[in-house]
Design brief:
Helix content is 57%, strand content 11%. It has 109 residues and is mostly helical. It has a two-stranded antiparallel sheet with strand order 1-2. Strand 1 and strand 2 form a beta hairpin. Helix 1 runs antiparallel to helix 3. The longest helix is centred in the last third of the chain and has 17 residues. The radius of gyration is 14 Å and the shape is globular. The two termini are 23 Å apart.
């Protein structure tokens, strides 16, 4: 799975960097996704990278772009990087490495 679920703002949300959202992220960062990922993991990112990952992840998961921008402006901008960076990295990691499938609750063998 390439979708990350996490609490952001006032509720839990899905974040997905679809192919289209990656293309937009590459355009905004003026670099390819591989170099971008390495830059973020090495903590050589720009401040805007963090908020754009979150915003584009929300849009990629189906949120209206205007609502995604509102959430990012309200809950990600002007916040400590220690709050926003882990979420952005988890969103990128979900696309890079995938995430575990959600538990189904089925305990039968």
């Amino acid at each position: 799975m390439i979708t990350h679920r996490a609490f952001f703002g006032t509720a839990e949300h899905s974040f997905t960097l679809t192919d289209d959202m990656i293309t937009e992220l590459e355009r905004l960062a003026d670099t390819g996704i591989g170099a971008f990922y390495q830059r973020v993991v090495a903590m050589q990112f720009n401040a805007a990278d963090v908020t754009e990952i979150i915003r584009l992840g929300l849009i990629g998961a189906g949120m209206h772009p205007q609502e995604a921008m509102h959430l990012v402006n309200t809950y990600a901008r002007n916040r400590p990087m220690a709050e926003t960076f882990p979420l952005a990295l988890d969103i990128l990691d979900a696309r890079w490495s995938g995430t575990a499938a959600p538990a189904t609750g089925d305990t039968t063998e």
